Amino acid sequence: MKKLKNETELLREALRIGAVYAQKRGAGEFEAADSAHDKVTFLYRLLVRDKLIQPLAKDQVSDPNMKHKLALWMSRQLPDDHPLNKT
After folding, report:
1. pLDDT per position in the chain (87 positions), as tens?
2. Residue 66: closest CA among 85, 78, 48, 80
3. Residue from 79, 2, 23, 58 nearest 15 by CA
4. How is 1-32 classified by DSSP, letter by letter?
5. Is 85 helix (H, G, I), strand (E, B) or coil?
6. How far apart are CA 84 and CA 49, in angstroms?
7. Contact at 8 Å (CB) between 37 and 13?
8. How far, in Å, CA of 76 to CA of 83, rounded?
């Protein structure tokens, strides 16, 4: 798994956009008291359930791998000329 250049910022943006997506979909919303791990897990599972991302293999499901998947998802949602997609 090759780390993306702006992976932390992409993950932060994925959580922001994912929260809006989950709320509009009626799946729930993030609370201020929710941990980062809970947010990542919830959003990862929601996107897998909605078939917006391909699930990780069962033995590969971990916090770093889910974060990477969310960052990849976000990088694909942004336009090519977006600052977070610059390499």
Report:
1. 677 778 889 999 999 999 999 899 888 888 888 888 999 999 999 999 999 999 999 999 899 999 999 998 998 888 777 777 765
2. 48
3. 23
4. -PPPTTHHHHHHHHHHHHHHHHHHHTS----T
5. helix
6. 26
7. no
8. 13
